[in-house]
Amino acid sequence: MNSAHITFTFYGYWHMGTGSGMGPALDAAVAKSDAGLPVIPGKTVKGLLREAVMLAEECGQIAAGMTVRLFGSQTNLEDRFSSEPGILSFTDATLGTAMESWAKTEEGKGLAADFYSQIASTAIDSNGLADEKTLRVSEVTIPLTLTSTVSTDAAHTSWLPILQTSAPLLREIGSHRHRGLGRVSISVREVQS
Questions:
Q1: What is the domain count for the chain?
Q2: Fewer CB under 10 Å: which end of the chain, C or N?
C-alpha cells in the first residue's frame, strides 16, 4: 500500500465545525475526537484535497481528469448509482496517537479544554449598532499542527506529486475563513516504508 502524511499547520484560530452548538452558551462547536482533542474528519480532509486538486486541474498545473481519477466522480440524486470511486482514502487529521492517549488520562482531561477558545460576533445595522438577537458565539481551536494519512492500493503512482502540487493552493480552511480564521499551510510527504 502506498501512503503519505498530510500536515495541516494552522497560524491562528480556526473553526472546523460540527454543524451543532452546545445549548444557549455556544452556537457553533468544533469537531473533536473521542478524547476531546481537535480533529479534521477524514471526509473533510478528502473534500479539502479534492478542492485543491480541482483548482490545480482548472489552472492547468496537472493533467485533466485527475480529480475524478483520484477522488471519484461526484454524484447527484439522479445518477447516484452510477458514480465511480476514487483510488485514495483518508484518515482523520489528529494531533497523533500519543496526544490522544494523553488526553484520556486524568491530567489530560483537565488540560484538553486549553485547546479551545470562544469568539462572538453580531450583525451591524445601517446605523452602526448591533442588530437585536444576532449575537453568535463560536468555539475556535488554537493554532496547532494536525496530520492525516492518505493511502491507496492502486498501482497508480503519480498521485503523490499531484497532491504535493495542489495542497499549497488552500490557504484558509474551515468556517469563517473569509473573516480571518483558518489560515493554514498544507504539505504532503511520502511515508517511507
A1: 1
A2: C
d(CA 43, CA 64): 23
* Residue 109 counted as domain residue: no
Contact 173, 146 (CB under 8 A): no
Residues 135-177: pLDDT tens digits?
677 888 999 999 999 999 877 668 999 999 999 999 999 887 7
Side-chain-side CA neighbours of residue 27 (13 Å): 11
- Model pTM? 0.85
Q: How far apart are CA 162 and CA 90, in angstroms?
A: 15
Flag whether 107 is in a domain: no
Contact yes or no for 74/115 (Cβ under 8 A): no
How is residue 158 written as a grid cell?
503519480
**Mind listing the pLDDT tens digit for each residue in 89-121?**
999 999 999 999 988 888 877 788 889 888 887
For cell 504535493, what's the residue?
Answer: 164
| Host H or E run for residue 110 | helix 106-111
- The residues with which 130 forms a beta bridge, in sequence order, are 124
User: Residue for cell digits 489560515?
Assistant: 183
Q: Which residues of 61-75 are buried (b: 16+ CB within 10 A; e: fewer)?
A: ebeeebbbbbbbeee
